[in-house]
Amino acid sequence: MKFSEAEIRKRAVKGLLHEVPLKHERSDDDMNKAAPLIPVGVKAKPAAVLVPIVLREPEVTVLLTQRTDHLSSHGGQVAFPGGRVDADDEDAISAALREAEEETGLARAFVEPLGFLDSYLTSTAYQVVPVVALVRPGFTVSPQESEVSAVFEVPLRFLMTPENHATHSREWQGKQRFFYAMPYEERYIWGATAGMIRNLYDRLYA
User: Fold this and answer.
1) Is the pLDDT of residue 72 over 50?
2) What is the separation, in whole angstroms, between the first and last Cα of the chain?
3) Backbone dihedral angles phi then psi of residue 105, each to the nearest 5 degrees
4) Residue 36's pLDDT band (cuts 50, 70, 90)
5) Band of the pLDDT at 70, cuts 50, 70, 90?
6) How is the chain split among helix, strand and coil, in percent rounded to 5?
């Protein structure tokens, strides 16, 4: 597989969605038909995340965050920068860019959105629109201390290698729930974030 800027752009034109997805196609329950957590007909809250592909040389990377441990929702987990869509946000792209800048310090001048992955419904009832973007190097990182304990990068090649897409499970309310996991060095990438990464693979490299 090739991971040059030109190759990513070519695959993005063919594989990504070019309009905001209006309903979810992926969810935390995709691997858990026997033990669903999301109620049927739940009223989801709109959210957006940035999937930032950083054009490093010689190895293109994906920028991720480690959430602080004290957060009530997904504390300590690895996540894409992003969050709830506010009333002042023009659209999902605006929300993703705003949240990424607030959480990591990534200035939107370095970011070029390319398209969207499938909308992802989380077990906490957020309907997340992942915005895939290219990021030019030269930006500075300034993590929002109240929400982000670390900002780090993982080679895109590693994340787009299906052999690194493990299936793990945990017991929840007496039932086994399954999810994708992509451990990288000391980071444990799993759950919704890993599910979106798998969607990126399915759309661009499968």
Assistant:
1) no
2) 10
3) 85, 0
4) confident
5) low
6) 25, 35, 45
Contact 135, 63 (CB under 8 A): yes
Buried b (16+ CB within 10 A) or exposed e, 69-82: eeeeeeeebbbbbb
- Which are the contacts of 20, defined by CB distance < 8 A and separation ≥ 6? 91, 92, 116, 129
**Which tokens belong to 91?**
């659209």
- What digits encode the pLDDT tens for the residues 158-199? 999 999 999 999 887 777 899 999 999 999 999 999 999 999
Neighbours of 36 (CB within 10 A): 15
Does 48 score more than 50 pLDDT? yes
At the topology level of CATH, where does 5-156 sit?
Answer: Nucleoside Triphosphate Pyrophosphohydrolase (3.90.79)
What stretches of the chain adopt beta strand conformation (E)? Answer: 26-27, 45-54, 61-67, 78-79, 82-84, 111-116, 120-121, 126-135, 148-155, 166-172, 175-181
Residue 49, beta-bridge partner list: 82, 130
- pTM equals 0.94
Q: What is the mean pLDDT of the chain?
A: 92
Coil, helix or strand for 152?
Answer: strand
Choose the weakest-confidence range: 25-34, 72-81, 136-145, 188-197.
72-81
Paired tokens of 184: 């990288």
All residues at 6 or more sequence positions from 124 whose CB lies less than 8 Å from its CB, including other chains: 73, 74
